[in-house]
Write a structure and sequence with these properties.
It is a single chain. By secondary structure, the protein is of the alpha+beta class. The protein folds into 5 domains: 5-55, no CATH class; 88-216, PH-domain like; 233-358, PH-domain like, CATH 2.30.29.170; 406-518, PH-domain like (Roll); 530-637, no CATH class. 22% of the residues lie in helices and 24% in strands. A 6-stranded antiparallel β-sheet has the order 6-5-4-3-8-7, with helices on one face. The chain has a 6-stranded antiparallel β-sheet with strand order 12-11-10-9-16-15, covered by helices on one side. A 6-stranded antiparallel β-sheet has the order 20-19-18-17-22-21. Strand 7 and strand 8 form a beta hairpin. The longest helix has 16 residues, at 555-570.
């Protein structure tokens, strides 16, 4: 293939011309797609596939230009021999950076030190970038010392990066395996090496000292035994002599606290105190005999001994200003021992005799600390929420699984299918409610009430069931102690309030009249009078005769005659006594028809008359003449045939 001669011409001004042999003039693409997105790319060739101006030289030509050295006056310079390669483990062999550091360690179980300062040396080995931590051995320290961290590469963060000598400096904190070391200084070689590498070192710091180690360097304290007290004499004199006190610890103010009984022993031989627990049978506690072992009891501690761990170490006179003695244990006074307050209520006879001879205290009476039974807690029911019957809701307060309240089965069997019906009107200020009538049905078997409103055509009010079967409480009763309406509350003219609506009883059926006659003792005089008036209206004569009789008889006579007729109808099935009139005439010598009240009631008791009946009481009231006299003529008429 013959190359194009045009390419051989030098590219000089005046010699550039258009290549007539060129046939390709397309441009290379500058856009491409990657993962579905259009991205820009740099063209590698020019128009028609020509080489770009920046890439006209090949890689071989570029390498030749890079290695070509200029020719000097005296010829080509001699190239220096390449430096010999030395590996790191040879170049940095036995070259170690040394830093002085310390770390702080907590001491929780000690009275003389709360923390400890431990001095260490940190070594960094340049040959493999490994580190080690060494602690100088301190004589009689009681701490395992020496190599704390063996030689290894140490990580400095959670990403797995390792410590490098570029990360080390003075006055910094190094965290190694959760323990923080404070670097305070380094040796001369370390300082020269780091400065030669361009690292600016922080000024050195002063090494922290261990306070307990410095305390041990002080001279020992000398103790002098007092000469005015002989412990041996006390031991020989009071050997086997023990004061016994009976005490209680009342912790009922705290949660789950209780009142417990203890026995306190005070040993006179060495002034030690022992507290024993008093266990009862089946008390549910572990049978530990001692609450506190025999020891001397501190009464007043020094101010700087508040944090002294008394439960671990023994205390001495250095931490205590005053100890408990025998004079501090007095019957009838509280005593605080190690934060627990005991009340001493009794002691044994030897203790009483000792206090009488030693301190002159002869009156140590026993105090009664027996627990008094608390007053019975009255069970209060929660307020009624208005749903269902109260008897059903109350069962949830008595048992976890409520049961249905017990029913009077005898009453249900006797009064089965017995219903009292009444006609009532609604007491309402609305004019449309004045003509509405309701039928009350009282079920004697369950004491429930239902209300039915007969539908009236073209009245605009939908009739039907107004109230389903339920018990209705009286408005004067409370939700906790409800009083329900009974059959004695229903009579003509009575006002019945049902859940805020007031109804007036207008009429009853014949069965109600018969029921009231058979159970007249249960009804009030007002109820019986209303029924009697209804009967009189039904049996009343013509209006002319009625008006004439009304003009002739006063109202009291009409009421008396109606009551006498009612009593005679009630007693028609019972035999009447014929000697009632003769019994009253014996004491009425003047035949006036009146006897005093005291004599009247004695005669009634002798004849076994039912004076406690409501109708009889009403009859006695109508027959009373003044305050002391009773007309027995009218009274006897009610019991005559």
């Amino acid at each position: 293939m013959v190359s194009n001669p045009v390419h051989r011409l030098p590219f000089l001004p005046g010699t550039s011309f258009k290549d007539s042999t060129k046939t390709a003039f397309h441009r290379s693409q500058t856009l491409s797609y990657k993962n579905g997105y259009a991205v820009v790319r740099r063209p590698t060739v020019g128009i028609g596939g020509e080489r770009l101006q920046v890439n006209q030289l090949s890689q071989a030509e570029l390498d030749e230009l890079a290695n070509k050295a200029p020719i000097l006056t005296y010829g080509q310079p001699k190239q220096a021999p390449p430096a010999e390669f030395i590996p790191a483990h040879v170049a940095f062999d036995k070259k170690v950076l040394k830093f002085d550091a310390y770390f702080q360690e907590d001491v929780p179980m000690s009275t003389e030190e709360h923390y400890r300062i431990r001095q260490v040396n940190i070594y960094y080995y340049l040959e493999d970038d490994s580190m080690s931590v060494m602690e100088p051995v301190v004589e009689n320290s009681g701490i395992p010392q020496g190599k704390l961290i063996k030689r290894q590469r140490l990580t400095k963060n959670d990403q797995g990066d390792h410590y490098h000598w570029k990360d080390l400096n003075r006055g910094i904190n190094l965290t190694i395996y959760g323990r923080t070391f404070r670097v305070v200084d380094c040796d001369r070689f370390t300082q020269v090496f780091l400065e030669s590498q361009g690292i600016e070192l922080n000024p050195p710091e002063k090494m922290a000292l261990d306070p307990y180690t410095e305390l041990r360097k002080q001279p020992l304290r000398k103790y002098v035994t007092p000469s005015d007290f002989d412990q041996l004499k006390q031991f020989l004199t009071f050997d086997k002599q023990v004061l016994r006190f009976y005490a209680i610890w009342d912790d009922t103010d705290s949660m789950f606290g209780e009142c417990r009984t203890y026995i306190i022993h005070y040993y006179l031989m060495d002034d030690t105190v022992e507290i024993r627990e008093v266990h009862e049978r089946n008390n549910g506690r572990d049978p530990f005999p001692l609450l506190m072992n025999r020891q001397r009891m501190p009464k007043v501690l020094v101010k700087n001994a508040k944090n002294f761990p008394q439960c671990v170490l023994e205390i001495s006179d250095q931490e205590v200003l005053e100890w408990y003695t025998a004079k501090d244990f007095i019957v009838g006074k509280p005593l605080t021992i190690l934060g627990r307050t005991f009340f001493i209520y009794d002691c044994d006879p030897f203790t009483r005799q000792y206090y009488k001879e030693k301190f002159g205290i002869s009156d140590l009476p026993r105090i009664d600390v027996s627990e008094k039974e608390p007053p019975p807690v009255k069970q209060e029911l929660p307020p009624y929420n208005g749903f269902g019957l109260i008897e059903d809701s109350v069962q949830n307060c008595f048992v976890l699984i409520p049961k249905a309240p017990k029913k009077d089965v005898i009453k249900m069997l006797v009064n089965d299918n017995k219903v009292l019906r009444y006609l009532a009107a609604l007491e309402s200020p609305i004019p449309e409610d004045k003509d509405r009538r309701f039928v009350f049905s009282y079920f004697l078997a369950s004491d429930m009430i239902s209300i039915f409103e007969p539908p009236v055509r073209n009245s605009g009010i939908i009739g039907g069931k107004y109230l389903g079967r339920t018990k209705v409480a009286k408005p004067s009763s409370t939700a906790e102690d409800p009083i329900y309406y009974g059959p004695t509350d229903f009579f003509i003219g009575a006002v019945i309030e049902v859940f805020g609506h007031r109804f007036i009883i207008l009429d009853t059926d014949d069965y109600v009249l018969k029921y009231m006659e058979n159970n007249a003792a249960q009804y009030s005089p007002e109820a019986l009078l209303s029924i009697r008036n209804r009967i009189q209206k039904q049996e009343a004569p013509a209006p002319e005769l009625e008006n004439k009789q009304t003009r002739e008889d006063p109202p009291g006579v009409q009421e008396l005659e109606a009551l006498i007729d009612t009593i005679q109808k009630q007693l028609k099935d019972h035999p009447c006594k014929d000697n009632i009139h003769e019994a009253f005439q014996i004491y009425d010598q003047e035949a006036s028809g009146f006897v005093d009240k005291e004599r009247f009631f004695k005669i009634c008791d002798s004849l076994n008359l039912p004076i406690d009946d409501s109708l009889i009481k009403e009859l006695i009231r109508l027959c009373s003449h003044g305050e002391d006299k009773i007309n027995y003529y009218d009274f006897v008429r009610a019991f005559s045939n």
